[in-house]
Every structure is written in C-alpha cells, then in structure tokens.
Amino acid sequence: MVKKSMVTGMDIVGSASCKALGTCTPCIKGKQSHEDVPKMTNMRATEPLGRLFSDVCGPMQTQSCQGFNYFMSWIDDYSCKATVDGIWHKSNVLEHLKAFVAAAELESGHKLKVLRSDSRGKYVSCEVRQFLLDKGIRHETTTADSLEFNGVSEHFNRTVMEMAHSMLEDSGLSKSFWFDAIEYATYIHNIIPTCSLTTNVMPHEAWTGNKPDVSLICTFGCHAFIHIPDSRCRKLDPKSLICTFIGYAKHRKAYHLMHHPTGHIIESQDVIFKETPDHEHLEHVQIEVDPESDMSGGEEIAAPVAPESADSEAEVTKLLDADKHPAIFHMVLPAAPQL
C-alpha cells in the first residue's frame, strides 16, 4: 500500500519479507489448514504385487443376496487390476486377506511385498500384523485423519459404488443385488483403459499378459433367455426361461442369472440376451373411462385367459433340477445370511 501510494501516514521499517517477520502463533492457530496430499507419485511398483492397496467399504443399509454387509477391495499398483470380495463383518478381514494373498501370489508368480491400508479397524489388529510379519510383507498405513494417503482404494470404492448404483437404477433390481453390481462394475474396470497405465494396455492385460475379450459384455439387468433341454420340458412347454443377467459365474464358464418369479439364482452357458428396453420401462398412463358410457356396444367382453406356462414356482423348481445336466443348467441357491 505504501509503495503504490494508496495510503498516507505509514513508513516501512526494516525488511518486510515473511522470513524476517517470523512465525505468528495467533495467525497459525486461527488459519492453519490441512496440508494438501499429492495426487501423483513417482514411487510406482515395478512388478505385480509390488504394492497392494486395500480397503473395506460398508456397512450397507441393505444386506446382499449372499448375506454380505461389507466388501473388501484390492488394487494392484503395477497393473491396476482390481478384485472385490464380500464379507459379513469386519472381523472376517484376516480370513479373506489370507485367501486373496495366497491366490494372487499363485496366479501371478510373484510375492506380495507391500500392503497399504487404513490405520484403523481390523487392518491394524494383532492377528493381521502377525500374518504380515510372518509373510515378510511391509505394512504401510495412513496417518490419522488422512485417508488421502490410501486414495487409490478410496477412489476405486467410490467409482464402483457409483457404477453399481447406476446399474441397479437402470435395471430396476432391488438393492439386495448391490454386491452383484459391484462385482460387474469391477469386471468392467479391469477391461477398460485407465490413465494410471501409460502404455496402451488394460489392467487385465497388464496382470495376465492376455488381451481381454469384450464380446461377453452385456447390459447389467437385461433379459436373458435360458434354453431348457428337451429332457426337462413337455411337448407344449416353452423352450426357454426368461431371467435377468447379473454377472458371470466364478468357477465355471457360464452366466450368472436370476429368475424373477422364484428368486432362484441360475448359472447357464446356453443363453440369448435381449438388451433392448421393453415396454415395462416406459411410463404407464392410466385412462379413466366414464361408467355411464357404453363402450362395449351392448356386448359382453370376455376376460383374457392367461396362457399356460412353466413359470409357476412348482414347474420352475422341477425345471431347475440340476442333477441331470449340471454343466448346462445349474441352480445356485442364495447363501443363508450369517447373524
């Protein structure tokens, strides 16, 4: 203000630099804010499982069909390959961590070197610390109230949760299918480009060395027509069963489907998909008719007769008998929720 002659009656004595003025304690107490955390780092892993990011998301307000209340996520720093697993309670973290580490090390041929997680909850329990110590895994944790240091996991959880919410809204499925949507969102994440990989590869290719096959991608919640073998239906019965696509089977080459009338979960490989929207997605308009007007012309209108179908619970249960053809038509009963 003095240099620009904006005020009068003021003189500058000595140096006016911040270093010369020193530290103002009252200013620090009144204005100190949280330090920014860098969004990029130069310390990237140079091989699979060089560093693994992990986090637990939940609890959800609705229990999944499998009985899960939380889900765990693992993101490999080298390939950006992500994996999710549902858990009933946070006390199951150690059990699922052991299973994932064993499977990932066997699949990749590398040993896990660094695990980064939050500095709270079951990740810092004595059992988890002892397991990591026995395996020779270095454990990196976030500082207090600084979840940004585990930003890879936090950002991934937010991304798949938003994708799952959109898929459930579009498909019209209930919120209890949130974990199926999370799994499918993770599958999509692994076969699309990411800015974290500078080369023209997907996370799936960076992890396995094979290019992903995108021909199997279908719209989550679309209609799926499952072929019913001739040995399971009568002469005039339908040749297919209408279900809803909710993902892919884990332990076989098949689709993961849900039959709406009975709620049964089915896994089948002989499926035809219908991804175009049906009329039930359109807005329904109710037309009120004046009761005094005679619209039928004096003739009695017969009520439509519902055709016979195999969609009743008894008939479907008979059709879903997987003892004879388990590889073609397999029913998976929902897991009982654990209290």
UniProtKB/TrEMBL annotation:
Keywords: DNA integration, DNA recombination, DNA-directed DNA polymerase, Endonuclease, Hydrolase, Magnesium, Metal-binding, Nuclease, Nucleotidyltransferase, RNA-binding, RNA-directed DNA polymerase, Transferase, Transposition. GO terms for cellular component: nucleus. GO terms for biological process: DNA integration; DNA recombination; transposition. It catalyses: DNA(n) + a 2'-deoxyribonucleoside 5'-triphosphate = DNA(n+1) + diphosphate. Residues 44-211 form the Integrase catalytic domain. PROSITE patterns: INTEGRASE. Gene3D superfamilies: Ribonuclease H-like superfamily/Ribonuclease H (3.30.420.10). Pfam families: rve (PF00665), SH3_retrovirus (PF25597). InterPro entries: Integrase_cat-core (IPR001584), Retrotran_Ty1/copia-like (IPR039537), RNaseH-like_sf (IPR012337), RNaseH_sf (IPR036397), SH3_retrovirus (IPR057670). One of its GO terms (molecular function) is DNA-directed DNA polymerase activity. The keyword Magnesium applies. It comes from the Eukaryota. The keyword Magnesium applies. This is Integrase catalytic domain-containing protein. It comes from Hericium alpestre.
